[in-house]
Amino acid sequence: MFRGLRDLGRARQAKISVSALIHILEDDRNKDIVISSLRYLSENKIAIIYAFVIMETYFHLIWQLLGDRELKNVQHVFLKYTAQMILRNLTNLDSPLLADMLVNKQDRKYQVQ
Prior knowledge:
Blueprint: E1 12-17, H1 28-43, E2 47-54, E3 58-65, H2 71-92, H3 97-101, E4 102-105, E5 108-110
Helix pairs in contact: 1-2
């Protein structure tokens, strides 16, 4: 049964954008990485995923954390892991998108999100 947003209680909405609006989510393999990460959160009872939509440069998510987990911690681990897997995929494909994401900062070479 569909539950309206007013009925979701502690659910939160998030919009996660790709750095510099690069179209990395256009590739289905990268979409699958996002979906796999969301599935992990759900199957391991870390979060309830109510809805999500993946666009070319961002995705929207309506989710609710379970237990006493802190949003900033779960979101950090989720985004870091997902970005690393997307970077690994782009590296394996020798994608030209990597050049667009190159930042060479002190703490990272590429910026995905």
